[in-house]
Amino acid sequence: MRQSHSSVTDIEIIEDFSSSARCDEGFLRVKRLRCRNRRADGSSSPVYRVDVVDRPRLDAVSVLVYRRGAAGLEVLTRMNLRPAAFFRKDQRDAMTVPDPAAGYLRVEEIVAGLLEPEDKGEEGLRRRAAEEVREEAGYGVRPEDIQLLGGAFFLAPGILSEKVFPAAVDVTGVTQEEPEGDGSPLEEGTLLHWRPFQEVLEACRRGDIPDAKTEVSLTRLLARMG
Prior knowledge:
Blueprint: E1 2-3, E2 29-35, E3 48-54, E4 59-69, E5 72-81, H1 83-86, E6 106-109, E7 111-114, H2 121-137, E8 147-148, E9 153-154, E10 163-170, E11 191-196, H3 197-206, H4 212-225
Parallel strand pairs: 4-10
Antiparallel strand pairs: 1-11, 2-3, 4-5, 4-7, 5-6, 5-11, 8-10, 9-10
Helix pairs in contact: 3-4
Domain Nudix hydrolase: 56-217
Keywords: Hydrolase
Protein name: NUDIX hydrolase
């Protein structure tokens, strides 16, 4: 297990400027639309509202980093600060099924990152995946080492436009260096942890690891390996 920076115990809100912020600025862009359905017979539905959330780039890659050892297959997970999950605790009246009392200061998940404008096609996807593994996990792998795990998927297609392209890489025998990260305060206290493959999969299914891309990647790699 590796830890970067000091251990974070809380996230303090300095200012909530939601009421004065434009919906088309910031890291997430919210489009507020009025729409109607057009039908084959020429008629239309009533007008209704749609909110769409875009990130700066519409595509992301996730990478399941794994290795083979005497105890079997192991998976590398990261414990990351996740404010959106953490601040759910302040809206308990809106929950139909209560969350853990302590909330989610960190969420366990796999390596992931946004594709950049230059990351075109399969070649760019593999290159970005290898770069994210180096930056977030400390393993120097080649783009050709990256295994693509099938088609991309939406995480919340009713709201988010982003698609995630799942991938995996075997780092058995590769020397791990200290991950450099991206310098963001959200990476303070990040923990890297090797865990048995089946243990991580069961944690996903119990909800202890509440991250969809992690479970999708695990099941796809498992299906590929038979």
